[in-house]
């Protein structure tokens, strides 16, 4: 029996990076998946997988109505919802406080917190009733920046520290029916982009030598691919393997204490 056989999963941001790796591996493990994806091209790429166990909803995580539509799509298509995975995020390309104008600081704060924090809260709120019924689980993608400096700039790091607080608080509020946990990957070469308000929406993390940093500064001294991170999500999404785990964020970055790249 596959590890996620019959589990119904709603994932936000499944078109690339860790999200796409989750989709592919979860399907292999027997899950049925609905993806909320904003980018039409990425949505089309997911639909091209052609699996009856995969449905795609085009929408924005910062819209409660779109999150509601995605939850309804999961329940309508598969009869229930067992797992909500909040995975959409923006990176600030390590913009330091003093390098941001006051206008950029305000606008960047609003955009990054809207996507990286509010998007998770809206998704969890929309999914809560269905997850209570199934005694399901919430999994949020965070970052090693939830624990350490130098995983981004001040705005990104603030959002990921906020995400850590969201996991801990929701684990308390939604217990005992719903478990809430987080997964904190490190950097990887994906098309993760930045906020439009900072003019970073056309830049991608894979455009910088992130793989060189991984090999030089991580404890394992190896390049990490998105698929390498998925095992922890499978553990937490299981109906039986993590029943005692809630309020926890797993740091799977293999980075140790970050150092400033030379």
Automatic annotation (TrEMBL):
Domain of life of the source: Bacteria
Q: Which Pfam families does the UniProt entry name for this protein? A: adh_short
Instruction: Mention one GO molecular function.
Output: oxidoreductase activity, acting on NAD(P)H, oxygen as acceptor
Does this entry carry the keyword Oxidoreductase?
yes
Keywords associated with the record: Oxidoreductase
PROSITE patterns for the chain: ADH_SHORT (PS00061)
* NCBIfam families per UniProt: PRK06200.1
Per the record, the similarity remark reads: Belongs to the short-chain dehydrogenases/reductases (SDR) family.
Write the protein's name.
Answer: 3-(Cis-5,6-dihydroxycyclohexa-1, 3-dien-1-yl)propanoate dehydrogenase
Q: What is the organism field in this record?
A: Streptomyces dioscori
Lineage of the species this protein comes from: Bacteria, Bacillati, Actinomycetota, Actinomycetes, Kitasatosporales
